[in-house]
Structures are given as structure tokens and as C-alpha cells.
Automatic annotation (TrEMBL):
The lineage of its organism: Bacteria, Bacillati, Actinomycetota, Actinomycetes, Kitasatosporales. Residues 208-228 are annotated as: Disordered. It comes from the Bacteria. Residues 31-50 bind DNA. NCBIfam families: ScbR_bind_reg (NF041196). This is Gamma-butyrolactone-binding protein. Residues 218-228 have a biased composition (Acidic residues). PROSITE patterns: HTH_TETR_1, HTH_TETR_2.
Length: 228
């Protein structure tokens, strides 16, 4: 069990280091040597978990979702807002999220993996909007698939603008403004008036996500039977 835990920690350290280097340098300029130095592991340990730089990039794409976990909300439009604000909060604080964002938009790796990541975000958004419509939260004319594409594209555009103009220092505020502008076009007034949308909300859901992740990990650990 201790050996397995060490392997998990090593893998996570490698992904964190890789995401940080990818975010700063881009995929093409990133080197395995710099990733090794930041992770503090041997080349053998890295290649045990990830046989190539592309495998590292793919790992970063997948691993980012482990820091974007939230318990489900009764109101699915509030859940949509909270996921968007949480992603903005994490993008400023966790290289797994910011590194994945750069990879999805840059060069050859963006062409290879970007469509998969973008499709995943659109799909997740469509799922929440479909559930919201089933609960009567959306205006009758709203098409969840069409709206999911627009919301996802708009979120990405705001992120890129914030990165290029303010190094993402205003990202939570800008994402809150995005939802404030877009949601009146899809939400029924009774639901719209109850939604919590603010930059301060981003920190709240960020801290909630951290607690939720710790509690989930602890519960999974308790569920594993002791050896022997």
C-alpha cells in the first residue's frame, strides 16, 4: 500500500511539473529535462509513468479534472455557473488547469488534443443545460446543444483575453460578467433572480472543491480493505 501511495504521489508530482512547464514554455519548447528538474524525479521514474512527452500532455488533460470536482447542485444553472467560476479560480492557481488550457490552444498538440478537450467541455455544459431544461430552468426556445457551444466558446474567449491583457488577474471577475450577460438569454426569470454570480463566489466554490476532493479521497481510502 505504501509503495502504491508513493507511485501515486510521484505521478502527480510529474504531472504538476509538466503542466507548469507546458504553461510557461508551450508544448514544443518544453523539455523533459526541465520537467524532471521541477518534479525532482529520475528519468526512469518519469518514463515508468509516461513513455513520451505526448503522453505527459495527455495526462495533464485528464488530471485537470481531479481539481475541478464539486458536489452536484439542485439548480443546474447554478451548477453551470459554479463550474465555470471554479475553473477560472483554478486556472489562476493550479498549473494542471492553466497548462491544459495552453496545450488545447497551441500548435500541433492543440490540433491533436484540443478538439477532445473542447468537445468534453461542450458535452459537460450541454448535459447541465439539458438537465436544467428538464427542471424548467430554461426558457422554452433554448436549445441546450446550441447554447452549450456558445457558452463554452465564450468562456474560452474570455480566458484568452484575460490572459493576454491581464495575465488572468481579472479572470474570475470577467467570467462572472460573462455569466451575467449570457444567462438572461436562457434562464427563466424566477431562476435567474436566485443565481449567485460573482468573483467572490469563485473563491467560495474553490474552497468547497478543495474540501470535497479531500473528503472524497478520504472516503475512498477508508473503503479500501486493509492488506492481509
Amino acid at each position: 500500500m505504501a509503495q502504491q501511495e508513493r507511485a501515486i504521489r510521484t505521478r502527480h508530482a510529474i504531472l504538476k511539473a509538466a503542466a507548469s512547464v507546458f504553461d510557461e514554455r508551450g508544448y514544443e519548447a518544453a523539455t523533459i529535462g526541465e520537467i524532471l528538474a521541477r518534479a525532482g524525479v529520475t528519468k526512469g521514474a518519469l518514463y515508468f509513468h509516461f513513455p513520451s512527452k505526448q503522453a505527459l500532455a495527455e495526462g495533464v488533460f485528464t488530471e485537470q479534472f481531479t481539481v475541478l470536482a464539486l458536489p452536484p447542485r439542485t439548480c443546474k444553472l447554478q451548477e453551470l455557473v459554479d463550474v465555470g467560476l471554479l475553473t477560472a479560480y483554478r486556472m489562476r492557481r493550479d498549473p494542471l488547469v492553466s497548462g491544459a488550457a495552453r496545450l488545447s490552444l497551441e500548435g500541433e498538440m492543440g490540433m491533436q488534443l484540443g478538439p477532445q478537450l473542447i468537445g468534453g467541455w461542450i458535452g459537460a455544459t450541454e448535459k447541465l443545460l439539458t438537465e436544467a431544461k428538464a427542471q424548467g430552468e430554461l426558457l422554452p426556445h433554448v436549445d441546450p446543444a446550441e447554447s452549450a457551444w456558445i457558452f463554452s466558446a465564450a468562456w474560452t474567449g474570455v480566458q484568452v483575453y484575460s490572459h493576454n491583457t491581464a495575465r488572468r488577474s481579472d479572470l474570475e471577475e470577467r467570467i462572472a460578467q460573462l455569466f451575467t450577460h449570457l444567462l438572461p438569454s436562457v434562464a427563466v426569470p424566477a431562476v435567474l433572480g436566485r443565481l449567485l454570480i460573482s468573483a467572490g463566489r469563485a473563491r467560495e466554490v474553490g474552497e468547497e472543491s478543495e474540501r470535497f476532493t479531500r473528503e472524497t479521497a478520504a472516503a475512498e481510502e477508508d473503503a479500501v480493505p486493509a492488506a492481509g
